[in-house]
Amino acid sequence: MAEEGGGEYLFKIVVIGDSAVGKSNLLSRFARNEFDHHSKATIGVEFQTQVVEVEGKDVKVQVWDTAGQERFRAVTSAYYRGAVGALIVYDISRKPTFESIKRWLDELNTHCDTAVSRMLVGNKCDLESIREVSVDEGKNLAEEERLFFIETSAFRATNVRKSFEIVIREIYDKVSRKIL
Ligand code: GDP
Ligand code: MG
Prior knowledge:
Elements (H helix, E strand, L loop, with lengths): L1 E4 L2 E10 L5 H10 L13 E9 L2 E9 L11 H4 L4 E7 L3 H5 L1 H11 L5 E7 L11 H11 L2 E4 L8 H17 L4
Parallel strand pairs: 2-4, 2-5, 5-6, 6-7
Antiparallel strand pairs: 1-2, 3-4
Bound molecules: guanosine-5'-diphosphate and magnesium ion (MG).
């Protein structure tokens, strides 16, 4: 979904990753600058829309949240349909969530074109004292899989906007060059 209608762009971005890595909080931080300490996984797909300016143009960004579906390994193909960007999220304080990244990439690849802009996100970087995944491990995986890489904290609002903006800018470049 990278349409230009009436001079306006609409980009669909999906957020994927294991349960409780902070996907919903990254989204609420991005869309409303809010953090929720007691976020309960609600079931069913949800998305939020934000207008972001890129090179003087308004880009409408629709960010989709799995909203708990991932707990049942039941993220449907409808969730991925039309996506032009993806944030693949793990929790730097829980190694198993990092080990799941390859599986999430496989799933993304079965549903989406390889041109989809991808960002590997190591969330909860505020939890340095209980870190289980080093920055280098994240970087290396991103290099191997040709992904952007960033560490974020939805809690402290570190790099959250930046993570979305890098992806949005790359999508914009690809759309302008008609790659997407
Ligand atoms: P989701 O299941 O991936 O959508 O994860 P949530 O956004 O619901 O977050 C799961 C839990 O992690 C919640 O208790 C959040 O408060 C907490 N959390 C999310 N992001 C961060 C973060 O950046 N730092 C810390 N310390 N906790 C976080
Ligand atoms: Mg959630």
